[in-house]
Amino acid sequence: MKKIIQTENAPAAIGPYSQAIETNGMLYISGQIPVNPATGELVDNNIKNQTRQVMENIRAILKEAGYELTDVIKCTCLLSDMKDFKAMNDVYGSYFIMNPPARAAFAVKELPKGALVEIEAIAVK
Asked: Based on the structure, what is the number of domains in the chain?
């Protein structure tokens, strides 16, 4: 059985998808872009600020579902430019200090709304 996870503390979906789906003790969080849920707008065009907003969006979804960052087992990071990898990685790493999850990072041609970064996550209890 699947459970739809929805919180106003993370951006609303901008398409036909859910913020997250929980099934069989696993939480699948859709890719989060750096949209401030209070304004519905992208945060400034700075990779560190954008990564921080993405991670806060992920944290809000985790919390809504009863999970924590320590429950995250896998992330996929998408960057509009690989030159931003180090700065993204510095912020990302500050959220996963001990026992970080498995991860993949890719550069892509472009991201929704012109974002610099998008991150999806999988968590398990």
From this structure: 1
Residues sharing a CB contact under 8 Å with residue 39, sequence separation 6 or more, in sequence order: none
pTM recorded for the entire structure: 0.96
Domain CATH code at residue 73: 3.30.1330.40
Q: What is the DSSP string of 76-125?
A: EEEES-GGGHHHHHHHHHHH--SSPPEEEEEE-S--GGG-SEEEEEEEE-
Residue 60 has which token pair?
Answer: 């809000």
Range of the domain at 86: 2-124
| Statement: residue 14 has pLDDT above 90 | no
